[in-house]
């Protein structure tokens, strides 16, 4: 075997363009369940489709962030190996539907998501379900800090962006746990964008140029935080996370697995590699991506591929023959 063949293989752009087929498949298979009130059926359809397509891709992906432990999730569980087994070895985070409740209700911003990094570089936060996150665009780097009160961060970011505080928009999940946070945001003079679910799309918006959302804050899923980090560094933005265990037992499991409590994880600690990919396909319409559309014999999807190493963002619009998906 040649020296080149012995060298460590890293995920490249061709892998990302293969993986987008898996997010497209998940979104297409979940499409019939939009607005039907059955989030479990939608999720199962997406999981089955994503798993099937991942098996055709030439890589060895270790699921660091998946559908849960093996006993609870028969496919795409934490620790599962996916792919053909040949090609680059990667860490992979999968969320066949980010926003199952949105899908079941027919609401906006449901996505199918895959994030990839070099093997051994993705934070395994699976023992702690929740993470407190702060995400901004490039203007927030070295300006905002999750340790500071939200009002102070809003004022600092407004100054950095040369923008009136009254025009700043802060995205936050609409949950009782955020009542005080929402009040503080509004008292600062900024506006809120309250999310029913799906803070991945809002975080990407917050880090993107020209977006109406300036900051995404609050407690959401730690898996979503890890996947989002693969995109934020490529966009030049800021992401910080603090793990939020629900009880002492969960905290102890986190500590036993090597996680740090009461600690601010920076982007380079959440994903310790610049060679990252974030891939998402829209399931329902949203500000980030259009949802799946079917017209006659054609199914249309829109996806985004963000590459950390080059900082490139690609949008992929694909038309699929519906006869192939019956």
TrEMBL record:
Position of the signal peptide: none
One term of GO molecular function: metal ion binding
InterPro entries: FBPase_class-2/SBPase
Key words of the record: Carbohydrate metabolism, Hydrolase, Manganese, Metal-binding
GO cellular component, one term: cytosol
SUPFAM superfamilies assigned: Carbohydrate phosphatase
GO terms, biological process: fructose 1,6-bisphosphate metabolic process; gluconeogenesis; glycerol metabolic process
Keyword check for Amino-acid biosynthesis: no
Pfam families the record matches: FBPase_glpX (PF03320)
Listed PANTHER family: FRUCTOSE-1,6-BISPHOSPHATASE 1 CLASS 2-RELATED, FRUCTOSE-1,6-BISPHOSPHATASE CLASS 2
Listed name of the protein: Unannotated protein
UniProt lineage: unclassified sequences, metagenomes, ecological metagenomes
């Amino acid at each position: 075997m040649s020296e080149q063949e012995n060298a460590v293989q890293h995920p490249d752009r061709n892998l990302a363009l293969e993986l987008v087929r898996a997010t497209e498949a998940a979104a297409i298979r979940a499409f019939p369940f939009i607005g039907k009130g059955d989030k479990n059926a939608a999720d199962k359809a997406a999981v089955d489709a994503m798993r099937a397509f991942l098996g055709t891709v030439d890589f060895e992906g270790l699921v660091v962030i998946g559908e849960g432990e093996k006993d609870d999730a028969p496919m795409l569980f934490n620790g599962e190996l996916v792919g053909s087994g040949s090609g680059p070895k990667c860490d992979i985070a999968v969320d066949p539907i980010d926003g199952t409740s949105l899908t079941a209700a027919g609401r906006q911003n449901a996505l199918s998501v895959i994030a990839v990094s070099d093997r051994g570089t993705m934070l395994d936060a699976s023992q702690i379900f929740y993470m407190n996150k702060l995400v901004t665009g490039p203007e927030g780097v070295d300006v905002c800090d999750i340790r500071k009160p939200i009002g102070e961060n809003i004022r600092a970011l407004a100054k950095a962006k040369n923008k009136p505080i009254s025009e700043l928009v802060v995205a936050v999940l609409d949950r009782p746990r955020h009542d005080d946070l929402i009040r503080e945001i509004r008292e600062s003079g900024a506006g809120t964008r309250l999310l029913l679910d799906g803070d991945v799309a809002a975080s990407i918006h917050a880090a993107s140029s020209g977006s109406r959302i300036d900051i995404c804050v609050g407690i959401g899923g730690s898996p979503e935080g890890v996947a989002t980090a693969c995109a934020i560094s490529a966009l030049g933005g800021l992401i910080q996370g603090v793990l939020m265990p629900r009880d002492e037992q969960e905290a102890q499991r986190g500590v036993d697995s090597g996680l740090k409590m009461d600690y601010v994880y920076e982007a380079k600690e959440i994903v310790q590699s610049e060679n990252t990919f974030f891939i998402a396909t829209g399931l329902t319409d949203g500000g980030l991506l259009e949802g799946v559309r079917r017209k006659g014999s054609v199914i249309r999807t829109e996806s985004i591929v963000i590459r950390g190493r080059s900082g490139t963002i690609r949008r992929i619009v694909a038309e699929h023959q519906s006869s192939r998906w019956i």
